[in-house]
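ok posting inputs for the zinc ion job
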Amino acid sequence: MRSTREELPVARRLSRPSKRRELPIAPVVLSTALALGGGLAALFLFQEQLQQRFWGPPPVAGISARPDFQGRLLGHFPYGEVKASNLVDLAPGLQLDSEAATAFEEMRSAAAADGVQLRVISAFRPIAMQKEIFFGVKSERNQSAEERARVSAPPGYSEHSTGLAMDLGDDSLPQTNLSESFEGTPAFYWLQNNAHRFHYQLSFAKGNRQGVSYEPWHWRYEGSAQALQQFEAAHRFNQSRGPF
Ligand SMILES: [Zn+2]
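and the output
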């Protein structure tokens, strides 16, 4: 008796008598998604290296790092320089944006009424001065740009150049000027409780997401549309969660 197989024409016999296979859609979709996700994660993780390698020249001469996706350089947001016509004198050598200055004078009077003497240590700083500070102190302390950026903004990235930020001290305790110990002074205690009434806020809180060291003395004005616009990115970034 001839087997069924032998009855088939040769061509049919050679082709495999298999069931029609279904395309495995789910695994294909899953592996594609995983590959895409992995690629994106890698882009995110190595964004700094990629930028350093492929994108434009570094924005600050003397610093090899380049800005990240949010425009931050070594943790600092970029800031332009306030127009000279917007500046007013707080004291000899100390200038501030006129609206920020008005609010500050009110704040200083309110503090004085509570027995606290606020001292302005530094206010508006032109970008050229920030350059001297950044590179001067860096070479003095033999620090790398990255190390220095933790305690001082690179030129073009300082809130001081906006004329909206200032460094404050306690007039009765000058030894705490520009030191973390300022947080133990009556001035800092008063500012923490009252500065918001004058639209001033601490820029670099303890453990801030920007990775800038804690600066209890550094306050910025956010009471005008222009000021809000200036600090919107920094504000949003510090309040959001997540690794980037
Ligand atoms: Zn400052």
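notes: Residues 84-239 form a domain with the Muramoyl-pentapeptide Carboxypeptidase; domain 2 fold (CATH 3.30.1380.10). The mean pLDDT is 86.
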